[in-house]
Amino acid sequence: MQNNGHITNAKAHEIAVIGSGFSGMAAAAVLAKAGNKVTVFEKNDTIGGRARSFSEQGFVFDMGPSWYWMPDVYERFFELFGNSVSDFYDLKQLDPGFAVIFGNSEVMDIPADFDETCALFESIESGSAAKLRKFIDEGEFKYEVGMRDMVYKPGHSVTEFFSFGLFQNALKIQLFKSFSAHARQYFRDPRLLALIEFPVLFLGAMPRDTPALYSLMNFAGLKQGTFYPIGGFVKVAEAFHRIAESQGVAFRTGQQIEKLEVSNGAIRQIRSNGMLKNVDAVIGSADYRHIESSLLDPEYQMYSESYWENRTFAPSSLLFYLGVNRKIDKLRHHNLFFDEDFEQHAIEIYKDKKWPSKPLFYVCCPSKTDPTVAPEGYENLFVLMPIATGLDDPESIRERYFTLLMDRLEKFAGVPVREHIILKKTYSVSDFKNDYNAYKGNAYGLANTLMQTAIFKPKMRSTKVSNLYYAGQLTVPGPGVPPSIISGQIAAQELLKSLN
């Protein structure tokens, strides 16, 4: 039956959701709103998946997401439950949205005002203001088609795209054109190209292997703007948790799912911490490959080990959480250090997989915006270096790169940062594996290559188990928080259809 455009059930079903990241919480909330009894099982002790946080010595560190783009996706989700973003957290637009640091400590601040961004481009490359407007207009069209139409499709088969004319629009959304080639039609200056290509490097794949469709991310970053939820990204995770609980969802932390018990082609029970629980359906929002290979018997697995081995994964990361007992004036909230060769680092992430020789890196300093995340007069630093998946990450290598990154940060900042660090934690490949069962320690999921877009991603609906659906960054629509939120909504709606 239909209710305000949303499918509801005549009969309540017992549904288990594996994982409490954004996709899992979104799916759970939608399923519960439709009248089902939903339980979220989380292996860790805290809710939020990668969007967890930790607090120590007066600092509050977001452990995962820190960029808040595509605000309409969050707002649209909250509206499903009669809420708005402002009911849960104070969202502030950053100005500058972010800064890019090039060689010789040259800083490019990206203004919140798009006209000012156009003027900045023009000051660097004559004629580029008009080109940027055209580039972003194209990105906005792709955003409308991609983020409002294509991205909400479950990716079961090619036929579902006929309804909004994907193939008629294929040339216009540039699904079959390289992002790198597209950007170079507009800009020549390597600084502008680095700025345009960075979202692809950090979340996707080699720019030359990524469809130009993803210039929609440039529209999001340069035109919609970069935002920050006061209190940190954990406030967003808390909002999703509150919405799910308000719909009656139960959360059980410290619950390691050990087996999905299949009978007559459907999951009838799940085994968690040695206990069996009867279920009518399951949404797996934890690592897709882990669920298939570790929780299902071989006859119920859709994808072989060689399948996963041959996928292109978005990067893993080496992360440092640093509490600093002084201010660092030259840092902005978001700082991209592009003072080394972009192409070389991309090759070492995606092609010649190894620890990078001269890495790019990112520093988030939320204490520039938010006094609640660090003691007064102190700074909260989140340092991220994208790396290939599957690397060994012993402490000795982590420390070598800590030295390398701090040398460059201190050179730019003109401050002996290391002398003032009073709190330091590291996080990398092996931690992603241990905490999230992440395949090869991936941080973001599958890369956005053409052959891993939409219908070419791992299927959301199991073809071997009738009541098993998947959500999250290894299925449609892809990596990042907004796509994960959408993924959970789609998975829930698809499951609801099958229950009716």
Give a short account of the largest sheet.
7 strands, mixed
Shape: globular
Could you give the order of strands across the largest sheet?
9-8-17-18-19-16-20
Based on secondary structure, the structural category is alpha/beta
- Tell me the distance between the termini: 8 Å
Unreliable stretches (pLDDT < 50, length at least 5) are 1-9
- DSSP strand count: 21
Strand content: 15-25%
Condensed summary:
It is built from 15 helices and 21 strands.
Question: How would you describe this protein?
Answer:
- It is a single chain.
- By secondary structure, the protein is an alpha/beta fold.
- Helices cover 33% and strands 19% of the residues.
- It is built from 15 helices and 21 strands.
- The protein has helices at 22-33, 71-79, 114-124, 128-148, 170-173, 179-184, 190-203, 216-224, 234-246, 288-295, 305-309, 342-350, 395-413, 429-436, 481-499, and strands spanning 2-3, 6-7, 14-18, 37-41, 53-56, 59-62, 91-93, 98-101, 107-110, 227-229, 250-252, 257-263, 266-272, 275-278, 281-284, 316-324, 334-337, 361-364, 379-387, 421-427, 468-470.
- The strands form 6 sheets. It has a 7-stranded mixed β-sheet with strand order 9-8-17-18-19-16-20. A 5-stranded parallel β-sheet has the order 11-4-3-15-21, covered by helices on one side.
- Helix 1 packs parallel to helix 9 (234-246) and helix 2 packs parallel to helix 15 (481-499).
- It is globular.
- Residues 1-9 have low confidence and may be disordered.
